[in-house]
Specification:
Strand 20 (383-391) and strand 21 form a beta hairpin. The chain is α/β, with parallel strands linked by helices. The chain is built from 15 helices and 26 strands. The termini are far apart. Strands 4-3-5-6-7 form a five-stranded parallel sheet, sandwiched between helices. A five-stranded mixed sheet has the order 12-13-14-15-16. It is globular, with a radius of gyration of 23 Å. GO terms for molecular function: CoA-ligase activity. It holds the Pfam family AMP-binding. Residues 419-493 form the AMP-binding enzyme C-terminal domain.
Length: 509
């Protein structure tokens, strides 16, 4: 049968694979591999002493720090399930997650503590704090300073992570991910597109509480080489460049908003990064112009776009090194089957746009406490992603847009991403977000929000005229609003929910 595919066992194997070495750099200090492993084993005992039992959910809402990974590994060792929560959620959103998940413990950091206290107010929830001791909290140092806890075996289909979706279309839903599903997804991603000299020094600015950050962490646990990571508490463009150069980073995961922030930094590219070979990009579409400009400023770097969602253990497809196709999010990861279907559920041929549907053992078990939503999302066990795209003749996947974000103007389909990509081709536009405005005659009208480069004198009227000539009568936005910053969600995707609110504010003013 082979080794049991559970994350507690994966951590144990990863700890024992190599001799002790400097494996994690964070805010000026190195953390050695066996030091981290020992802390996780002891924290396992600490969580057990605290009353955490196999199957319990524990919310992990922290700024990036070494204790995030230690907490994940300790809880998996104890047989519990992690519930990672982005530190940018509101107290109300956190309260919903606490009540819905049934978690009785939250692990947090000092910066986030007031929000956790507000969200947990009046609930039977214990707060474990990484940082200075604070009244009403349990110091994390107390958990990882006692005896080690034993490894608790779990079944492969047991819950390993309960991850809440962003809630942009309503209340956040808990996505149930299993041990085998996460184990398999990370293992297959680590094997896909292997090169003869695989990179092992990475710089990680992603929030580890996001699905993308979690899967990057798990991929590292599968590594056959000693893995050295530089972890950032949060992303800063200038610091990313300094750390990548100082530690000779070879690979780095980013999201498109981070790439745009780097490109907006006047000094980006001035510091050579000769060791950097690959940047992986996911979580949102990356405009082609941004990819080209990034690679122009950092010669020798290849951006590899991928695609995934929380419901699929964060991955579905990825461009293999040296075999990418520009504009594509790559080939399905081994173990993932991707089919394009029309609205009636019929499979569509290569080159035809339809809904992207996925089957894999790494697809979620379902939504927590939401059977109807599970059935709607997974008819027959196949996940309907809600994304529109197509496969080419060689199986490369192209994502066009979100089905729910589609704008129907005068009977014609307009995908916001097409308009956004065209806008960012303008030399003064640094970022763009597009939504539809109800229109009594046309059904919907196309409206854009843009941020401009510093010192730009380009006007909204200039951009409307420029777009009219560029993408034609149906698609071009009749309204363009210049804003200081196009809003993004806590996971750096264009926040269309906020854009629609802004549009309402413009309309009522």
């Amino acid at each position: 049968m082979g080794e049991q595919r559970t994350l507690g066992r994966l951590a144990e194997v990863a700890w024992n694979r190599f001799d002790d070495y400097e494996s994690l750099f964070f805010e000026g200090s190195w953390h050695r591999s066996q030091q981290l492993a020992g802390r996780a084993r002891r924290a396992c005992g600490g969580f057990t002493e605290l009353g955490v039992r196999p199957g319990d959910r524990v919310v992990v809402m922290m700024a990036n720090c070494p204790e995030v990974g230690i907490t994940y590994q300790a809880l998996w060792r104890a047989g519990a399930a992690i519930t990672p929560v982005m530190f940018l959620v509101s107290p109300e959103e956190l309260r919903h997650i606490l009540l819905d998940s049934g978690a009785r413990v939250v692990v947090t950091t000092t910066e986030v503590l007031p929000k956790v206290q507000a969200g947990a107010d009046g609930l039977d929830v214990r707060i474990v704090l990484v940082g200075e001791e604070t009244t009403g909290t349990i110091p994390f140092s107390q958990l990882d300073s006692g005896p080690e806890g034993p490894l608790v075996d779990r079944a492969e289909d047991d819950l390993a992570a309960l991850m809440y979706t962003g809630g942009t279309t309503g209340r956040a839903k808990g996505v149930m991910l299993t041990h085998a599903g996460l184990y398999s997804a990370a293992g297959r991603r680590s094997e896909q597109g292997q090169v003869s000299d695989p990179p092992n020094r990475s710089i990680v600015p992603l929030p580890l509480s996001h699905a993308y950050g979690l899967i990057v962490t798990l991929i590292g646990m599968h590594s056959e080489l000693p893995r050295v990571s530089v972890l950032m508490r949060w992303f800063d463009a200038a610091q990313w460049q300094r750390l990548a150069a100082e530690h000779r980073a070879q690979i780095g995961p980013l999201v498109p908003a981070m790439i745009q922030m780097l490109l907006a930094d006047p000094g980006f590219g001035a510091t050579p990064l000769p060791d950097l070979r690959y940047v992986t990009s996911g979580a949102a579409p990356l405009p082609r112009e941004a990819l080209d400009e990034f690679e122009r400023r950092l010669p020798g770097v290849e951006i590899l776009e991928g695609y995934g969602m929380t419901e699929t253990s964060a991955i579905i497809s990825s461009n293999p090194p040296g075999a990418r196709r520009l504009g594509s999010v790559g080939l399905p990861i081994p173990g993932y089957q991707v089919v394009i279907r029309d609205d009636e559920g019929r499979e569509l041929p290569p080159g035809t746009d339809g809904e992207i549907c996925v089957t894999s053992e790494s697809v979620m078990r379902g939504y927590w406490n939401a059977d109807e939503a599970t059935v709607a999302a997974m008819p027959g066990g196949e996940l309907r992603t809600g994304d529109i795209g197509h496969l080419d003749e060689d199986g490369y996947l192209y994502v066009v847009d979100r089905k729910k974000d589609l704008i129907i103007r005068n009977g014609f389909n307009v995908f916001p991403r097409d308009v956004e990509d065209a806008l960012t081709e303008h030399p003064d536009v640094t970022m763009a977000g597009v939504v539809g405005r109800p229109d009594p005659r046309l059904g919907e009208e196309v409206v854009a929000f843009v941020s401009l480069a510093e010192g730009s004198s380009t006007t909204s009227a200039d951009l409307v005229g420029w777009m009219r000539d560029r993408i034609g009568q149906v698609k071009y936005p009749r309204e363009v609003h210049v804003v200081d910053a196009v809003p993004v969600t806590s996971v750096f995707k264009t926040d269309r929910k906020r854009l629609r609110k802004m549009l309402d504010e413009y309309s009522s003013s």
